[in-house]
């Protein structure tokens, strides 16, 4: 059986293997997801400095005990946030050319690095991200459990939505439910977008009250042990959706089905995106699908690979990736529909990580018109 330390030694070996290609003899990691994936440290501050034979973790007083417990593959450097400690940290590693995370280092951090002598900094667009995209068994089971919590809460939407309930009240009910089901937090703020607000892909829930005839988009995910889940369902509040709603809903559903019917390892991220986009575009809604088809999910909510027409042309999908497939159509002034499932790419195709049924109609029951019960 592999011990936790073996997992992190394996991950360290995997990044060290890339040193020659990056032309570095050291790697500095400060971004939370890469730091946690490489070391195990779940704290909010700390820098990893990895060389061919050393793995150092510098963090401040708040995390000294936690680092010793969570990051056994690393040697703890007790950093007191002084320039002297900074110099000593890099001197201890002894690397001459150190890769830094170009997407994450701020100008203030860069200024501190520039004070360090005898080190050349080499900006790297990606470091551990491509390695993180392939999940191991423990990661998959954690994401699966986070998705199961999301499924259970999402399945309640049809039962708790009433005309007169505000977007914010519904978002709070769902957040409470996910916490009660064991989520350590939300993957991101719950999105509830109703009526015309459903035309805004990342609408922030407000005081608008749900009403008959509304399109409603609910996008949410639970977080568990640092791992995220992500799922969207679209609803129609009323017994009989009008024809425009059905035609948009069915088109989005058809676009998602086209992806799930064909997705397999080895396909490019652009080709996967095109499976859905082509269907939406031929129905004259191409301009209403302004975001990418999906993204990787793990310690970060939107991670490599991004499925989009603008993806790197060499980006391909592989078995072990946890991906969202989330086509959407957003029509200003009218509303929108998005359907998002989380899947695991397998050798032969995919497995669903999301299981919540798609039941878009929320019938209005007699006596539903008063909202006081749900007012916060
Ligand atoms: Zn989502
Ligand atoms: Zn998503």
Provide a compact summary of the structure:
This protein is of the alpha+beta class and 376 residues long. Helices cover 33% and strands 22% of the residues. The strands form six sheets. Strands 4-3-2-1-5-6 form a six-stranded mixed beta sheet, sandwiched between helices.
Give the key terms:
single chain; 376 residues; alpha+beta; Creatine Amidinohydrolase, Chain A, domain 1; Creatine Amidinohydrolase; 6-stranded mixed β-sheet; 4-stranded mixed β-sheet; 12 helices; disordered C terminus; binds zinc ion
Number of strands: 20
Instruction: Extract low-pLDDT stretches.
Output: 370-376
With strands numbered from the N-terminus, the spatial order across the biggest sheet is 4-3-2-1-5-6
What is the CATH class of the largest domain? Alpha Beta
CATH topology of the largest domain: Creatine Amidinohydrolase
What does the main sheet amount to? 6 strands, mixed
Quick one: overall form? elongated
How many DSSP helices? 12
Main structural class: alpha+beta
Query: How many distinct folded domains?
Result: 2
Average pLDDT confidence is 94
CATH architecture of the largest domain: Alpha-Beta Complex
CATH superfamily of the largest domain: Creatinase/methionine aminopeptidase superfamily
């Amino acid at each position: 059986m592999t011990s936790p330390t073996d997992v992190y030694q394996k991950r360290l070996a995997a990044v060290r293997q890339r040193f020659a290609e990056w032309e570095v003899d050291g790697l500095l990691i400060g971004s939370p997801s890469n730091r946690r994936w490489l070391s195990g440290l779940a704290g909010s501050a700390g820098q990893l400095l990895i060389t061919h034979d050393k793995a150092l973790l510098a963090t401040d007083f708040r995390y000294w005990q936690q680092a010793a417990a969570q990051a056994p593959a690393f040697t703890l450097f007790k950093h007191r946030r002084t320039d002297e400690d900074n110099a000593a940290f890099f001197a201890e590693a002894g690397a001459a050319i150190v890769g830094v995370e170009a997407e994450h280092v701020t100008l203030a951090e860069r200024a501190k690095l520039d004070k360090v002598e005898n080190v050349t900094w080499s900006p790297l667009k990606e470091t551990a991200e491509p390695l993180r995209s392939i999940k191991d068994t423990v990661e998959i089971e954690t994401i699966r459990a986070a998705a199961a919590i999301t499924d259970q809460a999402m399945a309640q939407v049809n039962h708790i939505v009433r005309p007169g309930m505000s977007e914010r009240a519904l978002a709070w009910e769902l957040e409470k439910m996910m916490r009660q089901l064991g989520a350590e937090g939300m993957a991101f703020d719950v999105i509830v977008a109703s009526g015309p607000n459903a035309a805004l892909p990342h609408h922030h829930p407000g005081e608008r009250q749900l009403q008959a005839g509304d399109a409603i988009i609910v996008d949410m995910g639970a977080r568990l042990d640092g791992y995220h889940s992500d799922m969207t369902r679209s609803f129609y509040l009323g017994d009989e959706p009008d024809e425009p709603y059905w035609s948009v809903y069915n088109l989005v559903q058809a676009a998602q089905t086209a992806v799930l019917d064909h997705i397999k390892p080895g396909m490019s991220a652009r080709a996967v995106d095109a499976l859905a986009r082509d269907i939406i575009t031929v129905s004259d809604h191409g301009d209403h699908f302004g975001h990418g088809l999906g993204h990787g999910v793990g310690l970060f909510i939107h991670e490599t690979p991004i499925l989009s027409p603008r993806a790197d042309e060499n980006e391909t999908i592989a078995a072990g990736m946890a991906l969202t497939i989330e086509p959407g159509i957003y029509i200003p002034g009218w509303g929108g529909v998005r359907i998002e499932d989380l899947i695991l790419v397998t050798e032969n195709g995919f497995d669903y990580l999301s299981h919540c049924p798609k039941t878009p109609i929320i019938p209005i029951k007699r006596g539903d018109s008063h909202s006081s019960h749900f007012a916060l």
